What we know:
The structure is a single chain. The chain has 15 helices and 19 strands. The chain is of the alpha/beta class. It has a nine-stranded mixed beta sheet with strand order 9-10-8-7-6-5-4-1-13. A three-stranded antiparallel beta sheet has the order 14-15-16, covered by helices on one side.
Amino acid sequence: MTPELVRRMSAPVPRYTSYPTAPHFSPKVGPVEFSEGLRNLSPSQALSLYVHIPFCAQLCWYCGCNTKATRNSDTIETYLQHLLTEILMVAAVVPGARPLGHIHWGGGSPNSLSADQIRRLAETLHTSFAMGADTEFAVEIDPRWLDQDQIKAFAAAGVNRASVGVQDFNPQVQSAINRVQSVEMTERAVNGMREAGVKGVNIDLVYGLPHQTEESVANTIEEVIRLAPDRIALFGYAHLPSRAKHQSMIDETTLPGTMERYRQSRRAEHLLIEAGYVTVGLDHFARPDDALASGEIKRNFQGYTTDKADALIGVGASSISQLPTGYYQNAVPRADYERRVSDTGLATVRGILLSDDDKMRASVIERLMCEFEFSKSSLRSVFGDLAKPVIDKAEELVAADEEGLVERTADGFRVTELGQPFVRAIASCFDAYLGKGNSTFSAGV
């Protein structure tokens, strides 16, 4: 792989956890449109739910999430009260049985909630939606602040998958990102969740962090393999201090260059495959017997998922709902979110209603991100003549390709094994919104 090609394909592009992407949401879409989208859901339609907890006990300097560092119990309790109100309001609008296939608590750190708060939040969800034995219930965990009472509360709530944040185990890297977390601390959290009955464990890693090298990444991977998680997410660090001000605490001169980032990601992938993990899409790995490795996958705001529901409801500050009619985002600042919930029960401030062209391009980009290919006949059967510009673009890309990154198939378009690390850049060629506005994105590799 030549440095020139890697640099060219590493130009900033969206991560494509949605299409259209969030920078193109409009304030013209608000709670009225969101309510209408909820009411239009089928009464028996399977749903997914995302719950955002925007608090951490300590802010990590690499983080790009919508979160605030606080240990003030009153602040957290006030937010929880508004969150419970929003959940009840949303549930009242959704018609029918409201069955949940997947639940995901993210943040921030959901274990910034006390054990009692975890129980109250879970009880409200159980009374507001239909949850069964097959519901996947995942929660993100920060091992540094996890105690035994919280573990018991999560397990009692029905949590059956824990996503454990690690990022990197190298002490110099941890110091540079303000996240000091030992292997032993992480292992206690993993073992504690498993002993409580939470069988599924994911571990989140990041490459491209300050002071990281191929060797330090490899050492972290070896420790993670020893912990034997079911799934591993390996994200490239997105250094965007203009958007996440606390990232300015990171010394940019210590960040690895483009080729070093690329080598780190390839080394990690090689080690994980060697250890028996299966690659899933761009940056996820799973054990061969895990559902993520053996079935059809989709991509949403939490990354790759087995969730088949086509309606994802987001509650909490900054959360985004993905409905058949469009995307709807809540107010990001906590105070604004709480005020809007107090006023109307809903906190939607912007979004986008999907056109047929949006849906068609979203389908293509998701298939590329998940399977690295799409079928022309399938696209035509669903979208008819609307598919022609995308199919023409695919033909143009194949004709112009000199490096062997893409190719024709008997019925469509495929990203080759050589091109797969650059699938975000390739998918961006089908993005009709890219280049419109002043959006900033992370490096493509």
